[in-house]
Structures are given as structure tokens and as C-alpha cells.
Design a protein that fits this description.
Elements lengths: L5 H5 L27 E6 L10 E2 L5 E3 L10 E5 L2 E5 L13 E7 L3 E14 L6 E6 L7 E5 L10 E6 L2 E2 L14 E7 L8 E14 L5 E8 L2 E7 L10 E5 L18 E3 L7 E9 L11 E4 L11
Parallel strand pairs: 9-11
Antiparallel strand pairs: 1-2, 1-13, 3-6, 4-5, 5-13, 6-12, 7-10, 7-13, 8-9, 8-12, 14-15, 15-17, 16-18, 18-19
């Protein structure tokens, strides 16, 4: 990962010291950036076959390659940056003068929500930047970001472009279908020959999916029951409401009632002296998560006592 920014620092991300010495950032905040925003993915414009491909894509979504129309934008690469020229004095995203990226929800994901896009760029003359979003490339369906102030300097600076900032800009609704959501980033320029250099693009927001697998730490046998100690995995950005268990290696599952949300989980009504292959999986609003590997637990044997009269 590259440089992190103020709202990620608030979320207690670890930041290499060298990135703390970068230029002053132009930041536009919204209140929910301090909640559960994560890095959904990024584009580094590295050399070779991966120039337009995403990296660090979080679980639960896929991100498409960057789309740039060569008939509208002149594109070159130097080092790890993309050079873009042939912009116009007017914002012409619907005409293809933009960079397109797309995000698609995974089948087991409940929803995702894009809250901000961070662009690290430099250019000769500052000018306006706009982001549209919709169901197709070069979309003009809705504006995510449309602040009227000019941005850009002759040195690289990172700009956090937050939803609902600017005239006509709105909050990006949560995506709950598997139809790709496109984000088109455009800018204006006083000259078609001006080159806008983009070092990288990051997408920040939330992704809600099923929970990660917990970890079984121990199984303690008792009379007709097993006490299963565990540590929780990730909750998929939705609170864990219960833990289901299997005693036959995942062939069937039981949902405890009342719900169990903390360790240990007690499995009762078992047969003494019998081995069981125990698995656990967490449940949230999206559904049942990934199961643990099977862990063997054997109940205490039944002890018979002979009494003579």
C-alpha cells in the first residue's frame, strides 16, 4: 500500500514514517469516514502488463481494470505514473474525457458503499475535478464529487474526493446487486496539451460480507456435553448475532437458541464415550460465515459400578 491519509490515521492504520513527511493534503471529510471505512482497492499504474490493473482489493468485491478511451484521452506512462492529456476547458465525462474504474459486488457480499476516492496527481495549472457514478463507463447518471475549487500543483499532492461534496453531488447509495458500479473521474484544462500526471488512485468505503472463520482454541469434555472455547474472526462489517456448530464435520449445522455470541459454546445432549468432529461458524445479517476446520472432541466414557448385596 502507498500513502495513507488523515481519516485512515484516525482508524488506527499503521503508517510508514516516510509517508508522514509528504506534502500538505487537501482533505474534504464527511462524518462517516471515521466509522468502518476500509481500503477497498487501488490502482498504482505500475509498468508492464499491470499498469491499469487494481491491487489490494478487499474480500467481497472485484474491481475492473482502468478504462481510458484512447480516442478521447492521450495516454503515456513514465515510471509509476500515467500521463493524461487532451482534456478540454469544459467537463466532458459523458464524452469520454475521463478515467473509468468499476466495482462489482461478490455473490456472498451483502453490499458495498464507496465513500471517497483519493487521487495523487500533479499538473501545470490547477483546475476542477469531478467524479460521476452509474451503471456504465463515461457515466453522467449522478455526481459523487463536484467541488468548484481548483486542484493540482506542479508537485504530487493527494486529494481526498468525498461523496456529496460540491454542487449537485450526492451520497453514493449502497450497491446491493452484482451489476458493476462505474466511477468516472474527469477534469478540466485550459489547454489540450496540458499533461495531468496521476501517481495512484485509492477507493475507500465499506464492504459488508459474511464473517470470517473463528478459531477453536480448546474443547473440554463433560457429561453428555462438550465446551468449545474459540476466538472470533472478522465480523464482515456486520455484528455477529450467533455461532452455529456441527458435530459431524459440517454435514449438518445447529443454531443455538438462545443465541451464543461469546466463548465458550456448550454442545449438549451428546453420547458419552463418542468422538465428535466439531466445527463452528459465525452468523451475521448477511448469513453464515466460513467454518473452522474440524476439531475432534470425545466425551467422557460412561463408568459402570457393580454393587453386590
Amino acid at each position: 500500500m502507498r500513502k495513507l491519509h488523515a481519516h485512515q490515521m484516525k482508524a488506527f492504520y499503521l503508517i510508514p514514517f516516510k509517508y508522514l513527511c509528504a506534502s500538505t493534503l487537501f482533505l474534504l471529510f464527511s462524518s462517516h469516514l471515521f466509522a468502518a471505512d476500509i481500503l477497498m482497492g487501488q490502482y498504482d499504474f505500475t509498468s508492464g502488463a499491470n499498469q491499469l490493473k487494481p491491487s489490494n482489493v478487499t474480500q467481497g468485491i472485484t474491481m475492473g481494470d482502468i478504462i481510458i478511451d484512447p480516442a478521447q484521452i492521450t495516454t503515456n506512462y513514465t515510471g509509476n505514473a500515467v500521463e493524461l492529456s487532451n482534456w478540454t476547458s469544459g467537463m466532458s465525462i459523458s464524452g469520454g474525457k475521463c478515467i473509468n474504474l468499476s466495482i462489482t459486488k461478490g455473490i456472498t457480499t451483502s453490499q458495498f458503499n464507496v465513500n471517497s476516492i483519493i487521487v495523487r496527481l500533479k499538473r501545470t495549472t490547477a483546475n476542477k475535478i469531478q467524479i460521476n457514478f452509474g451503471a456504465a463507463a463515461n457515466t453522467s447518471s449522478a455526481k459523487m464529487y463536484a467541488v468548484t475549487s481548483n486542484q493540482g500543483t506542479t508537485s504530487y499532492v493527494s486529494y481526498t474526493l468525498t461523496e456529496a461534496n460540491g454542487t449537485g453531488a450526492v451520497l453514493v447509495p449502497a450497491v446491493t446487486t452484482t451489476t458493476p458500479q462505474f466511477f468516472a473521474i474527469g477534469t478540466q484544462s485550459a489547454s489540450t496539451s496540458e499533461v495531468v500526471y496521476i501517481d495512484w488512485i485509492q477507493v475507500w468505503g465499506t464492504v459488508t460480507t459474511t464473517p470470517a472463520a473463528p478459531t477453536i482454541t480448546s474443547i473440554t469434555p463433560g457429561d453428555s456435553q462438550l465446551s468449545v472455547a474459540f476466538t472470533a474472526g472478522g465480523d464482515g462489517n456486520s455484528p455477529i448475532s450467533n455461532y452455529e456448530y456441527s458435530t459431524n464435520g459440517g454435514s449438518s449445522w445447529t443454531t443455538p437458541s438462545p443465541a451464543v455470541t461469546t466463548s465458550p459454546l456448550t454442545i449438549s445432549s451428546l453420547t458419552n464415550g463418542t468422538p465428535y468432529d466439531v466445527q463452528l461458524r459465525a452468523v451475521n445479517a448477511v448469513g453464515s460465515g466460513t467454518a473452522t476446520a474440524s476439531t475432534s472432541g470425545t466425551l467422557l466414557p460412561t463408568i459402570g459400578i457393580m454393587v453386590e448385596f
